[in-house]
Automatic annotation (TrEMBL):
Organism (species): Thiohalobacter thiocyanaticus
Chain residues that bind Mg(2+) 2: D51, D52, D130, D235
NCBIfam families assigned to the protein according to its UniProt record, in alphabetical order: FBP_aldo_phos
InterPro entries: FBPase_V, FBPase_V_sf
Listed name of the protein: Fructose-1,6-bisphosphate aldolase/phosphatase
Amino acid sequence: MKLTLSVIKADIGSIGGHICPSERLMDSVHNHVNDQSEGLLLDYYLSYTGDDIAILMTHERGPGDEKIHKLAWDAFLAGTEAAKAEGLYGAGQDLLKEAFSGNVRGMGPAVAELEFDERPNEPFLFFAADKTDPGAYNLPLYLAFADPMNTPGLMLSPGLAAGFRFVIMDVNYTEADRVIELNAPEDLYDIATLLRDTERYVVESVWSRGSGEQAAAVSTSRLHNIAGKYTGKDDPVMLVRVQKDFPATGEILEPYAIGPYVAGCMRGSHQMPLMPVQLNSGISYFDGPPVVSCAAFAMHDGKLTEPVDVFSNPFWNTVRGHVADKAIDMRRQGFFGAAMLPMSELEYTGIMKKLETLDDRFRVRD
Ligand SMILES: O=C(COP(=O)(O)O)[C@@H](O)[C@H](O)[C@H](O)COP(=O)(O)O
């Protein structure tokens, strides 16, 4: 029987603006998952990153399973009630549809799922980001799975020698899922050509070409495609299997030391550096900076070990310092130039209305 790892996350309310869920909210989601897990889940783990709550679940029911997705949806509904009772900001924000219809995809919550035959030892990483969108993982995944400057395993390990297949989604296409499959290393320049455009092309999954096994799964939902207006950034989750036929944990983590500029932060409309943070960290400076957390696990027969908080290692304090410096530098230029996203990507419609009004006031000189 294959095992499935499902992570489903949502922003359903926060203390003090969009910064962090309350204890009562976390408890209500936890209680619901705990009460409903029997006979469905092998194990689960709950955490938050910024104001997003993620439910990581292990089970044998395969990706997209109605009962698993409903369990998470109902847990978020229970949490929303707790959020309303406490007057939290944005209660139920990511639950964009009235009624559950078989699967949370397209309903607001973000989903990433992996199905595999469990190895005798099964190490994997669970990433969660806030105040940014799924394109934030493009660079770390490219470097970890396709660049020997980052991942010496591509040169040194026979298990990685055949390279990796990237499945990339065009997230601006709203009619259906539009994807392309490209192979590293042969298609490297084509992969780079797409992944540089983080707002349109997003890595959905990565596969080992040697074993055929799936290495990574990323949530690719775009909330504004579902809601038709800004309802918060997409705040992506990701699962990555590591070691042996996959990159080592350290090779997956190395790119996060760059603190690359990503879309998001204040009002989802800025370019700010991505800060690796500890598990269960809130948001602060300029509704940001965009943050990413990572929990490392091992599992056996679907039972999870305790999480290891990889970005709590002292090494990452220096990185956080660099990222904070980059963030403050960028904020010095306010709305100017690269500090804000291009007009087409601005998450608030107010500026578009303003431009229309100003357009009427333009006149062509004789
Ligand atoms: O990006 C933000 C929230 O994102 P999130 O929902 O947490 O993904 C914030 O910067 C808000 O846009 C900002 O605080 C204004 O919020 P509103 O007053 O419009 O709710």
